[in-house]
Write a structure and sequence with these properties.
By secondary structure, the protein is mainly alpha-helical. Helices cover 62% and strands 6% of the residues. Strand 2 and strand 3 form a beta hairpin.
């Protein structure tokens, strides 16, 4: 005998339009005994998403973009229930789960509306495209779950996070510059130490990948910024503008660095843009979307050159340090670069390079490049346009 949830799904999920959703929601709302089964069906749809390459943060971000915050919170509720069945999850999954919206109570504001939200969410989950996997789905055996950290890794990451938090909080641009610079130096040193350790131990570790959300507005400029951060940390980045994320390929310590630094630079950039707009308003000039787009593009472009220069200096300094005998480091890093490039090529065999439109607001560009100067030292500006893999 066909269950209520089967009839509700048949009515709502495989037909278009609000009338179909209303029919399915009415069936569920009239059958309180079907609540548990309805949520189990949602967890099943979530589990299918993992098999298609999605992670918790990706899924919630996509639901928020396609539907709204209410349905995103409902998706987070199903995700929390589904992932609770696994004895062990990768660290990146655990971090994503900790940052999900709080679970929502059932059947609020009323049974009909809640049932409609469920079915509309299920309709979206049912049609999720497959995306490039960045690690095994939950429940699969994964050696990296048990990878021992380097001896100083927890302390090093704690120091880096603390420096970037201070850079985001300070109201003094020179202090933010010094703190961010120090954090990047620690990241570069940590990356070099990990590379040498892996080479000397003949480690079989291979590059991995993570996805980082690139949220609107001004997502093209933010994607360029993320690409620059990835390149400076020996990673490769591919932007999927349709789904709102960039996939970053690299070794795990470098992926950590990219996530930390990109998040911090977004915070610092947003604060700098707010200050720049306040100054413009005080001068009697109204700021527009073109100003903000130009600001982010200038910020991303200038930081790209400066981060690249900083990475080159850090590598040159490490090559002559006591921890790396002369001539040892560069071949190790070159081999890792080849491994990252090969992995990215296998994951994305058909990427294209998109040229980003130039900016039209000189004030915005100028303020953005000045903000980049305060976030990072060294280097020279590029032209106000850019390219990015997608």
């Amino acid at each position: 005998m066909e269950s209520v949830i089967d009839r509700a799904c048949a009515a709502a999920l495989y037909a278009e339009g609000d009338a179909a959703l209303d029919t399915g929601a009415s069936l569920l709302a009239a059958a309180p005994e079907a609540d548990a089964e309805a949520h189990r069906r949602g967890e099943e749809f979530v589990r299918r998403a993992w098999d298609r390459g999605w992670h918790p943060a990706d899924l919630v971000r996509f639901v928020r973009h396609e539907l709204d915050e209410r349905r995103a919170a409902l998706a987070a509720t199903l995700i929390a229930a589904e992932t609770a069945r696994y004895a062990e999850l990768p660290p990146r999954w655990r971090r994503q789960l900790a940052e999900l919206p709080a679970p929502v109570p059932r059947n609020l504001p009323d049974r009909f509306r809640y049932a409609g939200d469920l079915l509309e969410l299920y309709r979206l989950l049912l049609r999720l495209p497959a995306i490039e996997p960045v690690g095994p789905p939950p429940g699969a055996a994964a050696d990296h779950l048990h990878r021992p950290p380097a001896a100083d890794e927890p302390r090093m990451l704690t120091r880096i996070r603390a420096l970037l938090a201070k850079a985001e909080a300070t109201g003094f641009p020179e202090e933010a510059e010094a703190l961010t610079t120090k954090a990047q130096e620690l990241m570069a040193r940590h990356s070099v130490d990990e590379a040498l350790l892996a080479a000397r131990a003949h480690s079989r570790e291979t590059p991995g990948a993570c996805r980082i959300g690139v949220e609107p507005p001004y997502e093209s400029a933010k994607a360029i910024l993320l690409d620059a951060v990835a390149s400076a940390n020996r990673c490769r980045a591919v932007w999927n503008d349709d789904l709102g994320f960039t996939t970053v390929v690299g070794f795990e310590p470098d992926l950590e660095a990219v996530e930390l630094l990109f998040t911090s630079l977004l915070v610092q950039g947003a604060a700098a843009m707010t200050r720049a707009e306040a100054g413009q308003r005080a001068g009697g000039r109204k700021r527009t979307k073109t100003f903000r787009q130009a600001f982010w593009m200038g910020y991303a472009q200038r930081l790209g050159r400066r981060l690249a220069d900083g990475a080159e200096r850090a590598t040159a300094a490490a090559d002559g340090a006591a921890a790396a005998p002369a001539g040892e480091l560069l071949p190790v890093l070159a081999a890792r670069d080849v491994a990252v490039t090969d992995t990215a090529g296998r994951m994305f065999p058909r990427t294209t390079t998109t040229r980003v439109r130039g900016v039209t607001d000189l004030d915005g560009w100028t303020h953005g490049t000045e903000a980049a100067d305060r976030a990072r030292t060294g280097g020279t500006p590029r032209e106000p346009e850019g390219e990015i893999a997608r």
